[in-house]
Design the sequence.
C-alpha cells in the first residue's frame, strides 16, 4: 500500500473519532453560554457583586451580593443571590422573598417580570421613583399599573425597602418565621386577594419554601443580620428618649386611639394635639378658630410649621431634622409624595417615642389604618420636612 494512502486512512480514522467529541464539547459550551446570559427565568439578569450599602432609612439600589451562593430547583443562582442580599440588607427572610418571587412573577415569566422587571407585583403610584409599567391584572382588571424597574437588582432592593419602611409591613423585619412574615404582609394588604392561612397565596408560598428547602438560605442571612445593621449619623442605640421637662406630652392622645378626630384628615389630629398642648388653633373640624398667618398655605400638612406663629405660643420649628433631632412630643410633618405621603399635601402626625436604629413611634390619622387616630412605627429618612416642638 502506498504511504500517502495510509496517511489518509489514519487521518480519516482520527477525524471520525474526534468529531463527535468536539461536537458534544461545542454543544455543552453553547448551552452554558445561553444559560449564563438568560438564566432559567428567561429574563436577562446581570449581577454586579459587591459589599453593598447598609439600609439607613432611605432607598439605595446596592445589595451585599455573594456570587458563591447557588440556586436550586427552578431558582437561578442570580435570583437567590439577590434574595439573600435583600434579606441581609433589610433583615428579612430569603425564603419569603424567593417564594413571593416565584408566586408573583410565575417563576420570572409573567408579563410584568419580563417587560417591567417587576417580580413582586409592586404597584405604581404618583410620585414614586420609577416609571409606570403594565396595567395591573388581566386587561387592567385590578386597576392601576405596576412599577417598571431598570434592572432586577433595583427591583429586589426596592421590595426590601418597601417592606422595611412601611408600617403595615415592617413587623416582618427581624421576624424569623416564614409563615408569620407572610401573614404580616397579608394583614398589611400586600396582595389584592389577601394572604391568610386559608388563601391560595399562603399555601403556595409555604409549599414552595418547603419543597425547595429555602429556610437553609434563611439561616445564612440571619447570621449576617447583626453585621449589616443600619448605621445612621447621630442615632442613639440606647433606650427610648423620655419626654423632656416642658416638652409636649404625646400621652394626651392615648385616649383618642381608634377615634375619628375632626374632619378625619391627618391635619385634624395635629390640630387636636396643638389645642391640648396650648399651641395655635388649626381648625380641621377641631376648633372653630384658626390662627393661620394670612397668605400662607393652610391646607398642606407639610407646611404646618410655616402657616402658624408657633413661637408666639412657646414652640419652635426645626426644618430638615436629623434623626438625633427627633423627640417624643414633637409634631412631625412629611414632604409631599414621600415615604408616608402620596399626595401633594404631605402628611403630619405626633412622635410618641424614639426607638433604636432609626425607629420612632407616632400617632397619625388618615394613614394605613384609615381615618382614625392610630399608632405606627416609622423609620427615619429624608422625607421629614419639619418637626415642631413645645419648649414652654
Sequence:
Amino acid at each position: 500500500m502506498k504511504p500517502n494512502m495510509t496517511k489518509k486512512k489514519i487521518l480519516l480514522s482520527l477525524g471520525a473519532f474526534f468529531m463527535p467529541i468536539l461536537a458534544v464539547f461545542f454543544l455543552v459550551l453553547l448551552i452554558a453560554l445561553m444559560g449564563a446570559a438568560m438564566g432559567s427565568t428567561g429574563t436577562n439578569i446581570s449581577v454586579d457583586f459587591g459589599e453593598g450599602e447598609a439600609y439607613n432609612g432611605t432607598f439605595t439600589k446596592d445589595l451585599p451580593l455573594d456570587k458563591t451562593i447557588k440556586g436550586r430547583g427552578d431558582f437561578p443562582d442570580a435570583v437567590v443571590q439577590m434574595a439573600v442580599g435583600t434579606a441581609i440588607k433589610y433583615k428579612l427572610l430569603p425564603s419569603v422573598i424567593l417564594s413571593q418571587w416565584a408566586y408573583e412573577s410565575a417563576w420570572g415569566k409573567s408579563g410584568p417580570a419580563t417587560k417591567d422587571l417587576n417580580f413582586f407585583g409592586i404597584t405604581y403610584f404618583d410620585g414614586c421613583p420609577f416609571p409606570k409599567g403594565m396595567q395591573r391584572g388581566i386587561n387592567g382588571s385590578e386597576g392601576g399599573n405596576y412599577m417598571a424597574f431598570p434592572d432586577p437588582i433595583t427591583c429586589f432592593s426596592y421590595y426590601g425597602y418597601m417592606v422595611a419602611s412601611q408600617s403595615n409591613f415592617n413587623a416582618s423585619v427581624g421576624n424569623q418565621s416564614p409563615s408569620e412574615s407572610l401573614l404580616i404582609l397579608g394583614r398589611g394588604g400586600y396582595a389584592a386577594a389577601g394572604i391568610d392561612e386559608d388563601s391560595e397565596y399562603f399555601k403556595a408560598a409555604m409549599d414552595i419554601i418547603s419543597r425547595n428547602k429555602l429556610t437553609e438560605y434563611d439561616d445564612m442571612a440571619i447570621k449576617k443580620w447583626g453585621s449589616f445593621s443600619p448605621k445612621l449619623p447621630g442615632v442613639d442605640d440606647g433606650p427610648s428618649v423620655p419626654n423632656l421637662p416642658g416638652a409636649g406630652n404625646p400621652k394626651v392622645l392615648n385616649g383618642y386611639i381608634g377615634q375619628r378626630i375632626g374632619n378625619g384628615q391627618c391635619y385634624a389630629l395635629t390640630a387636636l394635639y396643638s389645642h391640648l398642648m396650648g399651641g395655635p388653633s388649626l381648625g380641621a373640624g377641631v376648633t372653630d378658630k384658626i390662627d393661620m398667618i394670612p397668605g400662607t398655605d393652610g391646607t398642606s400638612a407639610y407646611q404646618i410649621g410655616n402657616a402658624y406663629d408657633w413661637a408666639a405660643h412657646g414652640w419652635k420649628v426645626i426644618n430638615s431634622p436629623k434623626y438625633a433631632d427627633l423627640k417624643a412630643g414633637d409634631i412631625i410633618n412629611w414632604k409631599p409624595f414621600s415615604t408616608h405621603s402620596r399626595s401633594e399635601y404631605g402628611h403630619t402626625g405626633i412622635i410618641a417615642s424614639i426607638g433604636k436604629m432609626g425607629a420612632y413611634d407616632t400617632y397619625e390619622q388618615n394613614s394605613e389604618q384609615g381615618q382614625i387616630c392610630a399608632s405606627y412605627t416609622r423609620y427615619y429618612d429624608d422625607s421629614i420636612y419639619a418637626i415642631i416642638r413645645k419648649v414652654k
